[in-house]
């Protein structure tokens, strides 16, 4: 093994183990029973997330690249494949709660087994082979980070359905901000912007196909919309006035009798929300979250503004490159109010994924990779809306300004938020 | 405390603790994750069964009768009430898998807490008070036994949905019988039979209202229908010929694409069935089980026979009083072939609940008890069919010839079986 | 052709034509568009009823018995078969509104075609052949009468869903009764009663299997429960108190948000009901109708009484043989108040089908006829409750005291009513 | 009244009456029963279309602008409002088949009543008032044309559900083309294109917000994809290979067991399709139609090509302005093969609406009109895809190159088609 590789693989192994440990850490506060249920189809059992991320490394790295590798268990490929048709049949998505076995301790053994063999593989790999597996290994780590984010949102949902409303962790690490900064609109000049990832590090295939987009002049709100601002919309009868809503959104509101964001409950005539720290009074300064695209857009319409397109968002991020944010590393796991001490554009990174009024479609040059990896993104490019910027459940080194997240417009269990634009 | 009571309460306490321990024993082979899921609405999570049976004693005995009793946990009444409207609101039946908390260990503490206080109450109770609570205490024990039976059937269903098909216990205690006894029909003379419970021990309210029923002469099959006999029906195209079926049964068969009893799977062109001991080849001599009323009746029609009414079954049990049976105490938990060494009427007790062609309706003198206990049986007297005789999941001292079990005609997850009648 | 037959067939032909004309007459007030829709699966399009009753005669009489008979249209057997699997495939029950073609005028031609050929067949039939087809011809007429009754109830439902609430016929022939007779309970002595049809005329197969049933002493209400009495139940919170209800009934009430019988609407704070004569104020003296078995039973429980079993009803009809009633011939098509001038047992015949607390099961000796006719009744003997006595939509010569009608316990679109019993 | 106006209003009146008569003409081949049913929620009863288009003129023109206008019928506003919340409550969309009354003849009277009063209004209107109502009158005519197109597609669907498969008109006016022109790809140069309507005539609000879009170089197929080409996809197992499909499309294909376009049936091992002229053998030269966006995109993926974006389509129409097309005026009502005699870009207008891979979203400057008219388009701008170019059911003077039609990606009952692009 060359010296060059030794140092590179050492760093890679470090990152591998750091990432893998984070998944386990996120599950530490859970009971075994918490890790097996699936209250809605969008939410996967935490045990499944832990196994599926290991299955990814086993299937795409160990099986093809580690000589004489023995599967941890023959049936795990069937049990823990998510949606890769190329890899074979699998437990249907809505049947994941049938997996009461293998028990949690077996999944931890599975994780250790995979980690041991990845370590072994990397410690003895040739330069050439390393270059060969690097893209998939990188994808495996990015994939694990995506599932860490889902773990947080899925755990929150699971706990919220429990009548006892248990906190994930009782104490919060949240910085207390007395009063969020005032809302302002910042000008972004129109013009031709280059859209998509142009760097040399990792990006997903859906960020490729760099292309130029003509963007009109517009203004962007300096921070996310707050609970206080959203409450004004609610108290103005926003949920009952069809004029603010897309038709399918208003149908959902009426069918599900929606009156507030997900996790909001009125107690003793006061709004509370279920958080990772238990049930708490709604803090009016914090960004409003767990709203669907429909609610985000209705709010914008009510406010006489618009949501941004994903191209406007990316253009703004070129004008004001975002620096830091409230990511999963803060261990707060809830959004934090905008800092009045900071001027300029805030909260573009972290806190909440921002709904854009852009459908999740392929960029002009988009092509699917051959084989199973090609199923990663492309087949979901219909009926979903793009979200940008990451959330308080996102790992800091996972985000980019070109990152395209996507959900159906009715989904509310993610850490979603609203940023407004002024257009002409 | 009088000496008389001391001995009576001692025996009662013995029975109380024996019964309570059996519930815990049945759950021992489970993982915590097994105890929280609810794959279909009929199946309750085992953890819920363990808590609910304790809630029954707490709510109906300890709270009203033990001075200064402190609830184990305020919210448990909401969490573990099953269907007693009188007692207040509760977790909806289809939401029982939301109860990932309280964790399993808390439920064990709850059980101990209740047991300790019941012991304390009984050890210091006066004669008068004991007489007062005896009926409810007895009901609580019978109730716990009913849930033990459900525990077995629900655990079987939960394990069966797992792609790994794990055995509840790998080894079986089943007596091996090479060849089931030949089928014969025994005459039961017609006449006026007294129906309902006339003894001095416990019975459920639905067995009261003793009344006379005119029964015609008929003949009863000496044992249950076997897998081999049922397979002949299947191989004759029984599931595809509408002439054998009630219309709603045939609709179910077509809609759900049924081809065989529940838990049957064809592997390498041979029929297997999922049992409490894992997947096994179908034994042709054993009684066929996990069939709906529709299948039982279609089989009877195909065979040119009938199902019995519940009155005919009870009349036959007066002519040939059943002795022993394959109950939960055998720890086999699956039906056993009829013994060729025994003549006369077999398998009336234990093995499998026998579908009758009698709707579960009130007997003439039926009245509901006042209060919550009145919700025990009466409100279910519609759209269900009566089953008689107990099964391999029934505690031996729980059954009587007058016992009326009841399920909807499409249910298959119980240990149900078929006995034929010849009528004129 | 013998003289004897000539006169017999003449009478039969008379009856045939009278019956057939009545079907057409019932449809006269309809628009073509009224005759094609199917708002719920229980309700068939009137055009379909008109065609299906003709198909019955064509399929079971003309095709097998009239030499050289040519089908009116090849596809009609597929289009207008209801549920006879033996006769071949058919338009699925919930797809009957697809039959916009053949248009109404073709169906009238179809009816004429069938009538002409039946006439031709009967005019030239030999004695022997007549005896041969008589049972099926009789069944065809009874079948047509059953569909006349369904026509009335289905037309009422179709018109009721129209926002204009059009009357079937604006004027009523109803006798105005100022005040219904007082409710009284009449004693029926217990004993062994012969149940089932013993006469020499027509009856359905489900009335056969005459057998003896032991009935206890009981008392029967002298008339049907009135709107006024039912309103007292409603105003006492009857629809909101679980104690009166079977569990599945209370679930239906809550799921469908039921507050009153079908067709009742509150306008300007006063209860109205949609009738065949348009929307009218609820008349408190008239019998309450369009209630499910669940509502009937909840009312009885609230009133501290019971519904009768079908055997008690038949026993009472032997003690007090019913004479006349408000049948379809009165052309009122709604129930009429009980006559205060009449003493004794009233309204057993006509007005409203009376829900009994008896499941629709086979009598002891029940056997299905071979072939398609065998599908007439037997295959529906599950999950349905027996109703007795006929309604204001029943032809007078169609009813018998042994007649067993049957519907699922949640059905409300039929002319159903409540009669109470006092039991001990 | 000024002379100027006289001639302008005369022309307008001519157009008004021509348009209105076309609606009636389209319904002439129908039976009254055809005009009332609603087999799926997307399809409205033809009678409803006829009434609703009249309601539009009555509500938005006659009521506000004709002094002393008396409503034809008070309830019609409730009955025939489609989706305008601003105008009040209405019959729910899935309840339109309840409107068996008013009968068809009343709807014709309604149309005449509205036409008479519109004539009266226009004959006496002042210049100023005319200018005032012109935009709404124009919208009313465009609206009526949209419903004419829906009438054709809805009638086709209604007839197709009838087991008799009746033809709308037996004879076809279709030009017979022996062999469709060969497929070729034509270059469209990239660059900044002006998108949206810039003319002075009518356009819908969703075409406004003219803006520039950067389009890459691409190639466009010279005609629509044919049945023959699509059949090659089918025969290559296209419906069973997940790699060609968007995930939600493949789920639909499996759930609905799709094997071919809507209206295709295999008879005697040969593909037929239901057309407006009855069931016919599939003509391989004709454009494939009645396919969902999912099928269109799967075909494109299989062929190694792409669908166009709506901007590319509009750019191509600027390079090759479309001239004529197969519109509703040809009275063929089915697509026609591409003419081998014609070179260059064909079939951009008429024949089939072409699915684009563009979500139906607002253009940058989009604003909703105030009041009910503002509900026309904007509230549907989610989850739908844009289609371009019109179909054989579109009136010729209704189409423009900037026209944006839109449907959900799973819809198949419209005349939809596929055009491919080559991209780099």
TrEMBL record, chains A, B, C, D:
Annotated DinB-like domain residues: 16-149
Xref: Gene3D superfamilies: paralog of FGE (formylglycine-generating enzyme)
Pathway: Amino-acid biosynthesis; ergothioneine biosynthesis
Domain Sulfatase-modifying factor enzyme-like positions: 183-318, 345-421
Highest taxon, organism lineage: Bacteria
Pfam families registered for this protein in UniProt: DinB_2, FGE-sulfatase
Official protein name in the record: Ergothioneine biosynthesis protein EgtB
């Amino acid at each position: 093994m060359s010296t060059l590789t030794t140092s590179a693989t050492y760093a890679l192994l470090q990152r591998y183990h750091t990432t893998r440990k984070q998944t386990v850490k996120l599950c530490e506060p859970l009971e075994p029973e918490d890790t097996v249920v699936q209250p809605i189809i969008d939410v996967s059992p935490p045990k499944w997330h832990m196994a599926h991320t290991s299955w990814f490394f086993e299937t795409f790295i160990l099986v093809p690249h580690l000589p004489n590798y023995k599967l941890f268990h023959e049936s795990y490929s069937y049990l823990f494949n998510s949606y890769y048709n190329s890899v074979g049949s699998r437990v249907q998505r809505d049947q994941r709660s049938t997996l009461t076995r293998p028990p949690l301790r077996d999944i931890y053994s599975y994780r250790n087994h995979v980690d041991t063999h990845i370590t072994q593989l990397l410690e003895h790999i040739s330069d050439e082979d390393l270059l060969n597996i690097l893209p998939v290994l990188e994808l495996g780590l990015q994939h694990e980070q995506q599932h860490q984010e889902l773990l947080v949102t899925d755990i929150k949902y699971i706990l919220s359905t429990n009548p006892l409303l248990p906190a994930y962790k009782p104490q919060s690490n949240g910085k207390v901000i007395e009063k969020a900064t005032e809302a302002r609109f910042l000008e972004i000049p129109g013009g031709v912007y280059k859209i998509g990832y142009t760097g040399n590090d990792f990006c997903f295939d859906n960020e490729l196909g760099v292309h130029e987009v003509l963007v009109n002049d517009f203004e962007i709100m300096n921070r996310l919309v707050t609970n206080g601002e959203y409450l004004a919309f609610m108290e103005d009868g926003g949920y009952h006035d069809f004029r603010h809503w897309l038709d399918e959104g208003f149908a959902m509101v009426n069918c599900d009798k929606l009156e507030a964001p997900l996790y909001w409950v009125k107690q003793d005539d006061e709004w509370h929300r279920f958080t990772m720290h238990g049930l708490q009074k709604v803090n009016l300064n914090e960004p409003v979250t767990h709203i669907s695209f429909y609610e985000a857009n209705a709010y914008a319409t009510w406010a006489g503004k618009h949501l941004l397109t994903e191209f406007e968002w990316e253009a703004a991020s070129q004008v004001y490159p975002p620096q830091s944010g409230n990511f999963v590393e803060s261990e707060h796991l809830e959004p934090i109010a905008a800092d009045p001490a900071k001027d300029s554009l805030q909260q573009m990174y972290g806190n909440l994924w921002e709904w854009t009024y852009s459908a999740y479609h392929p960029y002009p040059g988009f092509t699917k990779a051959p084989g199973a990896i090609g199923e990663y993104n492309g087949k979901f490019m219909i009926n979903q809306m793009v979200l940008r910027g990451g959330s308080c459940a996102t790992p800091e080194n996972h985000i980019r300004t070109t990152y395209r997240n996507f959900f159906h417009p009715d989904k509310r269990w993610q850490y979603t938020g609203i940023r407004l634009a002024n257009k002409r």
